[in-house]
Every structure is written in structure tokens, then in C-alpha cells.
Design a protein that fits this description.
The protein has 285 residues and is mainly alpha-helical. 76% of the residues lie in helices and 0% in strands. The chain contains ten helices and no strands. Helix 2 packs antiparallel against helix 10 (259-282). The relative contact order is 0.15.
Length: 285
């Protein structure tokens, strides 16, 4: 009995030691650097997408206002190859950081909740896919598929199965809900809880708050718009009605407000890109 108890105690100690080592790795300077590099990469991507959307609003660009278009823009300048590899590194860092949060939790009172860790795992998968797509583009072995094509293909595939239309409607409603939540959260300035605001000067805090608020609302608007078209596609049984980021943005120009709504959201996306770069500086990681 003593032997069993001792063995069990040793097993628990080894398990606790493993968890401690894992948490130390998750909180290491290397992981913090990867997290900040990932946030900066996300900021660059959103800023470029927003800039393309601004040009579309003025009728000066036929480029896609999504990740594919952003990669074309970034890869087309004289420092394109360096920019692409920096994005690969950044998004890989973001995926690893989110994966560490899924495994060991994140800073803050809710960091150890199961829902928080599952959400982190989902983000890790998303950013891993993005990193892989950018890597393929940087290596010249395949261009990233446009968000519009991806949305139509995924919708068509889902609707080809029994109950697929219901699943697409649920996914669309979830996307609308996520967009509304992002906009509401930005309006209420919840993002400030994740920042080391005590390290900011008062003027810096005002600017970061402004960027995060307006940028977050713009980002939520794009998510919600894409969700609306996903629901429409399922209700009408027309997969081609599904829209990615590019088509969702262009659809804003067809509202009664015309290109001015698209311009406002585009500027908001640029602001979210700037906020994400500020987040890379001041976020708690």
C-alpha cells in the first residue's frame, strides 16, 4: 500500500512538473516575441486590406480586398519577398502563441476557463491555415484562394449534404453574432482589459482606445455582413450568394449610402490594423 501511494505521489509530481515546465515555456520571452510578431502581422494584413477597400470605394482598384489581394500588394513591391517571409513568421508565431494558450491558459481571470482555451485552439488552427497559405505564396507553389471562392465552395459543399442548408444557416447566424459581439465589445472598450494601459502615456491611451474602438466596430461589420449573405445563400439554396471578405465589402457600396459606407468601413479596417500593431506593443502575453 505504501509502495502504491509512493508511486502515485511520484506520478502526480511528475505531472505537475510537466505542467510547470509547459507554463514556463508558454510565458517565455520567445513565446512573447512570437505573440507580438503575430499581432503585428495581423495588423499589416488588415491595414493593406483596408487600403485596397479605400481604393475600391473610389473606383481605383480591381484588386481583391481580402488576404489574397493583400499578398499580391505586399509581394509586388521591391521588398515583397522580405515582407512575405515576415508575415509567414508572424502568423506562425500567432498560431503557436494561441496553441500555448489552449494548452496552458492565458493571462487574466478567465484565462483558465475551458471556453477560453477552446477559443484559443480555434484561433490557433485559423492562424496556422493562414500561415500555411502565406508560406505557399512566398514559395511560389500556389496562390492563396480568394475569400469569395472559399466561401462559395465551402457553402456548396455543405449544402450538398442532408441538413446542409440548416448547418449553413446556423453558421451564418453564428457569424452575424460574432460580428455583432466584436462591434459591441469594441464599443464598450473591452479590449483595454487585455492591454498594459499602465505603461501608456495618457495621449497614447487615447489614440489606442480610439483605434481599437472604431477598428473593432468596422471588423465586426464585415463579419456580420458576410454572415448575412451566408444565411441568404442557404435560404435561397444558392451557394453563389455566399460572400467572402472582398464581396462583403463591395456589397456595402450597394447600400443607399453608396461607396461612403464602404469607405468608412475601409478606414476602420486600416485603424484596426494600426490598433493591432499597438496591441503588439502593449498586450499582456
Amino acid at each position: 500500500m505504501v509502495v502504491t501511494s509512493t508511486a502515485g505521489r511520484k506520478g502526480r509530481n511528475a505531472k505537475n512538473a510537466g505542467k510547470y515546465t509547459g507554463r514556463r515555456a508558454a510565458n517565455s520571452p520567445v513565446m512573447r516575441f512570437l505573440a507580438r510578431a503575430g499581432l503585428a502581422a495581423r495588423g499589416v494584413m488588415y491595414a493593406v486590406i483596408g487600403w485596397i477597400a479605400v481604393q475600391i470605394a473610389f473606383g481605383h482598384s480591381s484588386q481583391r480586398a481580402d488576404r489574397t489581394g493583400a499578398l499580391h500588394v505586399l509581394g509586388g513591391n521591391r521588398f515583397g519577398e522580405v515582407a512575405l517571409w515576415l508575415l509567414v513568421s508572424g502568423f506562425t508565431g500567432m498560431a503557436l502563441w494561441r496553441l500555448s494558450e489552449a494548452a496552458y491558459g492565458s493571462p487574466g481571470p478567465d484565462g483558465q476557463k475551458a471556453s477560453t482555451r477552446v477559443a484559443a485552439l480555434g484561433r490557433a488552427i485559423i492562424y496556422g491555415v493562414i500561415a500555411y497559405g502565406v508560406l505557399k505564396y512566398a514559395l511560389g507553389i500556389g496562390g492563396a484562394q480568394s475569400s469569395n471562392r472559399q466561401s462559395v465552395d465551402l457553402t456548396a459543399t455543405a449544402m450538398s449534404h442532408p441538413g446542409g442548408r440548416v448547418a449553413v444557416i446556423i453558421a451564418g447566424l453564428a457569424l452575424i453574432g460574432a460580428g455583432l459581439y466584436l462591434a459591441y465589445s469594441a464599443w464598450k472598450k473591452h479590449f483595454l482589459k487585455k492591454l498594459n494601459t499602465g505603461q501608456m502615456r495618457p495621449r497614447n491611451r487615447q489614440v489606442v482606445t480610439w483605434l481599437g474602438r472604431v477598428g473593432g466596430i468596422a471588423r465586426g461589420t464585415v463579419f456580420a455582413t458576410a454572415g448575412v449573405f451566408l444565411v441568404i445563400a442557404a435560404v435561397r439554396a444558392q451557394p453563389q450568394e455566399a460572400k467572402g471578405v472582398d464581396s462583403a465589402l463591395r456589397a456595402l457600396a450597394l447600400t443607399p449610402l453608396g461607396p461612403w459606407l464602404l469607405l468608412a468601413v475601409a478606414i476602420g479596417l486600416i485603424m484596426f490594423g494600426a490598433y493591432s500593431c499597438c496591441e503588439a506593443r502593449w498586450r499582456r502575453v
